[in-house]
Amino acid sequence: MGQRKWIEITVGLFVVAGIASLLMLALKVSNLNTSYEEGKGYPLSLMFNNAGGLKPKAKVTIAGVPVGRVRTIELNHDFVAKVVVWMHQEIQLPDDTKASILTAGLLGDNYIGLTPGFSETALKSGAMIPETQTDSAMVLEDLISKFVSSKASEPVASSKVNEKPNESNSAGQAEPVHHL
Amino acid sequence: MMIMLTLVRKVRRLGRWVIQFFETAGQASFLLFSVMSGQPKVGRAFQLLMKQLFSVGVLSFIIIVVSGLFIGMVLGLQGYNILSRFGASQALGEMVALSLCRELGPVVAALLYAGRACSALTAEIGLMKATEQLAAMEMMGVDPLKRIVAPRFWAGMISMPLLALIFSAVAVLGGYWVGVVILGVDDGAFWGNMQNAVDFHDDVLNGIVKSVVFGFVCTWIALFQGYACAPTSEGIARATTRTVVYASLAVLGLDFFLTAVMFSGG
């Protein structure tokens, strides 16, 4: 009988250790405790001219505080990106809220930042924020091409500068350093 | 004429191989079916299951914990060395937890399980067959499939996911110990990035599904190899080797397909 008792105790401990590991993986390792129940929130549709690298499950923030998550990203019939986000229940937004796609760090993930406006009427569940009220994602290639084309147009201007005496040229070079 | 004869012989060998393959597959399926469809008497079967849970699960506990700890520690060390080169050592927790939950936890635990528990299952049942204990049971009107094979099968099915979970959890702690305590990655960043990156449904649950599949396949292979082995000492030795080889290959091969199904959908 003693052996049987021992077996049952260790098997019980083994199962407890397994369940404890599952709880640890669920609560400490994965996002189960931080994910809110979707039944409690409400959806909003945001229209963007360019959704950039936004992915489902990206966070939605107001003033840096997470208040929701991106659910789906699809192309609307008039070729704008329709991003459905799921907001926390307690967040009430005015209907002139602006949305923009931001990037965490230089090469980080994209997320949505909301800037509430001053309107008296609140956005209802399922409401839409049109693309006139949103800022699209910053696409690195666009920025680079803008930067390059602005640089490419410079030599024409700087050659005129070169005809002037040397002091103004060195001043012109020194100036961006002050800005930085 | 000679060429024709050798050709015929080759074709015949191929045919024999195919027939043997399907015979084996049929026998294995029959074994599985009768094990799963058998309805055991509740009280006694529970005792048998307990005993097998002890020898399959509890006795594998130590090896799982120790190897989990070391795998986690080496992940922490290697991950830190590589990530810190890009200034991204903050992402260490994310890397450790994702690789463990998705791949290393289920796969390494299943390989250890195949080596530690499945080989023992095959040897035990093979020896029972060689010493004609199974035949004696049949003579006494006891179905060895229900009495011997079924409890071992269910014990393996229950133990394997638990072992994989324990492995992953211990390994995350090992990675935490090396990464945060020894190498000085920020504590909050380690857990925070991990929680942001690891999804319970996509990563943890899929890992559990993997470990259930591996437990099923490994235990099935072990029981069939034991039950069908040649009843000699050499036969038992061969069957035990085959169990470990087949089970390990099946785990690694299935892992690729499961990963392709689970994680390629984006």
Describe this structure in words.
- The complex is a heterodimer of chains A (180) and B (266).
- Chain A is of the alpha/beta class.
- Chain A folds into 2 domains: 1-35; 38-141.
- Helices cover 36% and strands 25% of the residues of chain A.
- Chain A contains 4 helices and 8 strands; from the N terminus they run αββββββββααα.
- Chain A has helices at 2-29, 140-152, 154-163, 166-179; strands spanning 42-48, 59-62, 65-75, 81-87, 98-103, 110-115, 128-129, 134-135.
- In chain A, strands 7-1-4-3-2-6-5-8 form an 8-stranded mixed sheet, with no helix packed on it.
- Chain A starts with a helix and ends with a helix.
- With 266 residues, chain B is mostly helical.
- Chain B has one domain (62-263).
- Chain A binds chain B through residues 4, 7-8, 10-11, 13-15, 17-18, 20-22, 24-26, 28-32, 34-35, 57, and chain B through 47, 50-51, 53-54, 57-58, 61, 97, 101, 159, 161-163, 165-166, 168-170, 172, 191, 194-196, 198-200, 203-204, 208.
In short:
Chain A is an alpha/beta fold. Chain A has 4 helices and 8 strands. Chain B is mainly alpha-helical and 266 residues long.
The total of helices of chain B stands at 8
What percentage of amino acids of chain B are in beta strands? under 5%
The figure for the number of domains of chain A is: 2
Low-confidence stretches of chain A: 167-180
End-to-end gap of chain A: 81 Å
* Separation of the first and last Cα atoms of chain B: 58 Å
Return residue spans of chain B where pLDDT drops below 50 for at least 5 consecutive residues: none
Q: Give the CA-based shape of chain A.
A: elongated
Structural category of chain B: mainly alpha
Provide the spatial order of strands within the biggest beta sheet of chain A.
Answer: 7-1-4-3-2-6-5-8
Count of all domains of chain B: 1
| Largest interface, Cβ cutoff 8 Å | A-B, 24 and 30 residues
Strand segment count of chain B:
0
Derived structural class of chain A: alpha/beta
Percent of sequence in beta strands of chain A: 25-35%
**Helix share of residues of chain A?**
25-40%
Largest sheet of chain A, in brief, is: 8 strands, mixed
* N to C succession of SSEs of chain A: HEEEEEEEEHHH
Let me know the average pLDDT of chain A. Answer: 78
